Structure formats: structure tokens, C-alpha cells
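hey can u check if this looks right to u? its 177 residues, i copy pasted from the old doc so theres a chance i mangled smth
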Amino acid sequence: MSRNPRFVRARRRRFQVRRSPVHGRGVFALVDIPADTRLLEYTGQVISWQQAQQQHPHDAAQPNHTFYFHVDDEHVIDASRGGNSSRWINHSCDPNTVADELDGRIFIRTLRRIRAGEELSYDYGLIIDEPLTDELLAEFACHCGSAGCRGTLLALDADDDENNDSPGAQGDGAAHG
């Protein structure tokens, strides 16, 4: 085998962004990916929550669609500015990836083996700083299609997980999506 750098085989791409049946664009595996694999970092401009509120919404036609990712009580990543393909990972109530925080950085990791062609997803678990009403649940409706779909992108407390007809949990204002 040649040691010439021109002939060193490039690392094969593991995923790509394309149209999703769930919502808009999505990220799809191009190869089988083992469980517990760190895929990529959720990147973008790190801003304060105050800045995020001031520049929200990005799209007046879709005011609840953002590329914000909650980091901590003071910071959010805005992937609309300097973000990578991780911003296109859609929500699922039965996700195949999870977002891990490490020293203020967010990494997407597989929860299980993902087969080539499968769409990557994680549970957004959005937390809203107001009572969960039917209108609010509808505003953040989920279209993941999983057997255990809870019908919303919002995080529900333990009681609400068993009974989606009993909204009322309040959150801490964290949101990403």
C-alpha cells in the first residue's frame, strides 16, 4: 500500500442533509453507525438568552422554528449563525441520538445502532415558561410518527407523559429546535 498522502483514502461521510418526511430538512445516515458514537458537535454562535430573545424570531412565518440550543441558564447556541448540519436534526419522541453537554459544548451521540438511510433524531424536550395549554401543545405539535409519540415537541412532566390531556407543567424557559 502506498504511503503517498495523495492516495490515502478519505474518511467516508457518515451522514447528509436532505428533505425529511418529518419536517423540512433532516439528517440521514449514509452508512451504518454504531451505538454510542459521537457524531458531531452542535455548532453556532454562542449568545446570551437575552440576545436570543431580542433577535427572535428568525422567520416571522414560523416564529417557533429556531436553531437555538440551550446550553445553560445564561447561554444558547444560535446555529443560524455559523451552524453545521446538526441544526437540521429533527425531533422524535423515540430518538436515535441524544445531545450531550460537555464544558459548554453540545455533542450529538447515537443511542443505538443507526442503519444507513435512517433519519437522525433527538428529543427536543422544549421547556416553555408558561402553562401548557391545548393551544400551546398544538403550536409545538410533533409529527415524528413514532408509536409512542406524545404529540408535542414540548417536555412534559411525569404526570403529563401518561395523560397528554392534562396540561399544566411549567418550565424554565429553555428552548432549542
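Strands lie at 15-19, 25-29, 38-42, 45-48, 68-70, 75-78, 90-91, 97-102, 105-110, 121-122.
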